[in-house]
Amino acid sequence: MAxxxxxxxxxxxxAFKYRQYQxxxxxxxKNSTSLIKVNVDEIYKSLALNMISNPGFYLKSGPKTxxxxxxxxxxxxxxxxxxxxxxxxxxxxxxxxxxxxxxKDYKEFESFLKNVLHFKITKATNGLGLxxxxxxxxxxxxxxxxxxxxxxNEIANYDLILNDILKEKNFETIKKTKFxxxxxxxxxxxxxxxxxVTELNFNSGNVVFTGIFNQPKGLIFKENSNHRSxxxxxxxxxxxxxxxxxxxxxxxxxxNTILESDSLAKxxxxxxxxxxxxxxxxxxxVITYDYNDNFEKVEKITLQAKEIPxxxxxxxxxxxxLKNYLNRQNYINPDSLTLNKTIFPxxxxxxxxNTKQLVLSTNxxxxxxxxxxxxxxxxxxxxxFEQVNKQINQPMFSRYxxxxxxxNAEGKKTEYGKIVIEAQLSLIxxxxxxxxxxxxxx
Length: 442
Description:
Blueprint: H1 2-23, E1 27-29, E2 32-38, H2 40-53, H3 55-66, E3 78-79, E4 84-89, E5 97-103, H4 106-116, E6 120-123, E7 129-132, E8 138-142, E9 146-151, H5 159-166, E10 171-173, E11 189-193, E12 197-203, E13 206-214, E14 219-221, E15 225-228, E16 236-244, E17 251-254, E18 257-260, H6 261-267, E19 268-291, E20 297-317, H7 319-328, E21 332-333, E22 338-339, E23 350-354, E24 357-361, E25 372-375, E26 379-384, H8 385-392, H9 395-401, E27 404-413, E28 418-427, H10 434-441
Antiparallel strand pairs: 1-10, 2-4, 2-11, 3-5, 5-9, 6-7, 7-8, 8-9, 11-12, 12-13, 13-28, 14-16, 15-25, 16-19, 16-26, 17-18, 19-20, 20-24, 21-22, 23-24, 26-27, 27-28
């Protein structure tokens, strides 16, 4: 029995290794500017091991649920290799990601496009088919051997570039490109361009993200980083400890009002934080209409109290100068000391603070703590989704957030002008693979 199990293990390991070898022989356009690798086999292995560890959960899920994540169970007619690659291409939209797949069964693939994806298909005399999604953000050019695909949020005519991809015109294998290091990356999803690398892994009960980026231009980090001590019961907390260089002639337009970047940098003193702690109550005027005894339409104003998020934003600044500037730009109502309702119509935002700090809050009785603690990072964000769901109490949002538990993220400065962003999204069920939970939840 042990020999049989060992033989099967060797077979499967060998099969995975061979599939990975084949995937790494994939060619991409020579003028690719970035590359995404979806490590299909690594995802399947992670799911398979998790299913072995938790058979009861997956058996209860049923076959219908399993089909949501098992792409190979669909009759899509494509050859799915151990890894799938998507790339952006020079002189094309940066939001357009291209890829190329081999077709295993032409009729099955075309049926999948028509009956499952409900794409509109047109046929050309040269035997090519062109399939488009309803809104045109996914376009596939295909023949009996292969399919070239683009996914984009910028609708345009990609027929020529798709035809080049279909023919593998000006292609070379990945190991000969500047992206060759991605071949040995075994994370579930990884992205690489000339300056940045990001990775995503779906583990049991959490999703882990890591990104290494060039330090953004105009961002200055402090040598000694401190941050305000956040309330442990906060639904959301965030802080950023960094300064911004003035950017002359850069303007931000909001509702016919303008903010100049260099003016904001002049008053800002390198620190901002946000905290969402439970709820607070605000009273709004509700206008309705009725008819009097003379059948004349009469406006009726009633006051309505409602629960809203208790938000506090602290900004280290030359507060008097910043308030005067925002007042001149019509961002602050000087009589009520609130933000202009046209700028932020959802809630009434009160303006307070002192000479060194500008405070914005949905609670008129603004209260902040002045307790600070040291940190070795320049930013952090924490979200408690269980608290968020309680505070929002909106089924439209909570149905998508119900499986989420916490999000923790932080950013650190490294040598050579790089920054590292690390984040972990924890889910309610700590034992089940995160990808399965996310796919099942949506």
